[in-house]
Amino acid sequence: MKYLKNNKQSFNLGFMFKTLFMVLIGIIIFSCDTDDTPSEENNPPGEITGYSNIKNTQWRDNIGQEFEVEGILVEENGIAKLLIDKNDYYIDGLINEINYIYIDKVSSLDNSLNFAEYFGKKVKIKGTCEENEDNTIQVSSQLIGDISLATIVISDLTNIQIINPNIIIQRPPIISICQIYPQICEFPVFQNNKTALLYSGGINSSYAYKRYWNDLKLMYTILRDKGYPENKIRVVYKNGVGEDNEIPVHYAANQTGLDEAFSYLNEYTNSATKFFLMMNNHGGGKDNFGRPSTGVFDADGDDNRGSISDNTDEQYFYYNSSTALTDDYLATKINELGFGSMIAVVKPCYSGGVIWDFRGPNRVIMTSGTEFQVTYSHTSGLYGEFTYHFFAAVTGQDPITGATVNADLNSDGQVSMYEAQKYILANDARPEQPQYEDDNDGVGTSSPSASGFGATTFL
Ligand SMILES: [Ca+2]
Ligand SMILES: [Ca+2]
Ligand SMILES: [Ca+2]
Ligand SMILES: [Ca+2]
Question: What is the residue extent of each domain of the chain?
């Protein structure tokens, strides 16, 4: 009952049906997550899940009304939200709307209430339902739904209480690459015919987690170490500004910025060029595990093939944009580059959904999961799970502990993309199945070939 408005609602027949309906929805959502890591913050079966008493199709009728809500508070770029399930913080996809709600405060509390101090703790909050005023959340609501604007606004300091002092979610710090990897921070003087595009959008202030910045910084540094010239790497990130100055950010993650990045790289790309692509942040798609579909309707039908007819193009979000970034669009931009070979490392949820779109000769495509699967960050929240193991494989060093790892299966002194994927497959500890494609059939596999193109492809 704790998420019910003011406890005023009487236990009438309508409420019983509503409860029954929400329990059913809850069973559908959670029962399909059979391979999910158990979380001590998952609701016990039978209890009403989430904030559906506030966040429903009539949520605007709730504006101005007072509610009491509980959840784990997380804060990103100054925007706080409550989560029902801590796992949602580590997923690189959209959170079910009923499983999170934004928290804000009246301006008179600006100096006395700092949400960061509550990070990762379970809190109880009383406040008024309002529409979120953050510009990026307003803009992204045009893409992900009006319901995403629902916010509980606190007007009194006594209306936020910590109900569990334990930190359930640790705030992951931004890493300093050269402290962890001093040996790769001295870049070689040789310059190769290699170009790279590193991308992370982040949707809006609340979804743009710092781990994407960690991923991009480490990837950038590794590429420089591998001889990718500074002027041939373009970083497209969030609003065009990095979280620190360790690597440059060249463009904002919107359609204009992405187009400009591709145009720029096109000037440096020829038929002998190696093109590296990292896609990061959230993804949307058709889910086979009970979550609502967050992809884009496949209007041209090109995503349906063979046994797959999901009518869904996967999307990989911009920042502060109401335009969807689809796999179709990315494939068009990639195919305009006249490179000789490509390595694509694709982290977001539903990442396997790019394999069909990105297919082509001399291309290695490595994804964190299948077309129908959410994928996770590392348990530390510092990197993606998939990217964490990729970094370990190609540097020979664990990116957190510094421990030596060896992914060089054939002991030739270098780690091919085939070897990197084998390392990832052996070590990925999340409920996700990384996929691999290097034979131009557009079909991902969990069993990479030891004699395929990727076995002789290196960063
Ligand atoms: Ca399509
Ligand atoms: Ca699809
Ligand atoms: Ca697709
Ligand atoms: Ca090797």
Answer: 5-164, 177-456
Return the C-alpha torsion angle 169, 173, 179, 183, nearest 10.
70
Ligand nearest to the CA of 357: 3
Contact predicate 337/358, CB 8 Å: no
Q: Which ligand is nearest to the CA of 328?
A: 1
Residue 350 Cα to ligand 2 midpoint, Å, equals 9
Are 152 and 102 in contact by the 8 Å Cβ rule? The answer is: yes
Q: Which residues surround ligand 4, an ion (CB under 5 A)?
A: 408, 410, 412
7 alpha carbon to ligand 4 midpoint, in Å? 63
Residue-wise DSSP of 299-341: TT-TT-BTTB---EE-EE--BS-SS--BHHHHHHHHHHS--SE
CA of 91 to the centre of ligand 2 (A): 19
Q: Tens digit of pLDDT per residue, the chain (459 long)? A: 333 333 333 334 444 444 444 444 444 333 333 333 334 344 444 455 799 999 999 999 999 999 999 999 999 999 999 999 999 999 999 999 999 999 999 999 999 999 999 999 999 999 999 999 999 999 999 999 999 999 999 999 999 999 999 999 999 999 999 888 888 888 887 779 999 999 999 999 999 999 999 999 999 999 999 999 999 999 999 999 999 999 999 999 999 999 999 999 999 999 999 999 999 999 999 998 888 889 999 999 999 999 999 999 999 999 999 999 999 999 999 999 999 999 999 999 999 999 999 999 999 999 999 999 999 999 999 999 999 999 999 999 999 999 999 999 999 999 999 999 999 999 999 999 999 999 999 999 999 999 999 999 999
- CA 431 to ligand 1 center in whole angstroms: 27
Distance (angstroms) between ligand 2 centre and the Cα of 313 equals 5
Q: Give 372-389 as a DSSP string.
A: T---BB-TTSSSBHHHHH
Answer CATH for 177-456 from 3.10.20.30, 3.40.50.1460, 1.20.1600.10, 3.40.50.2000: 3.40.50.1460
CA of 145 to the centre of ligand 2 (A): 21
Q: How far is the CA of 310 from the centre of ligand 2 (A)?
A: 6
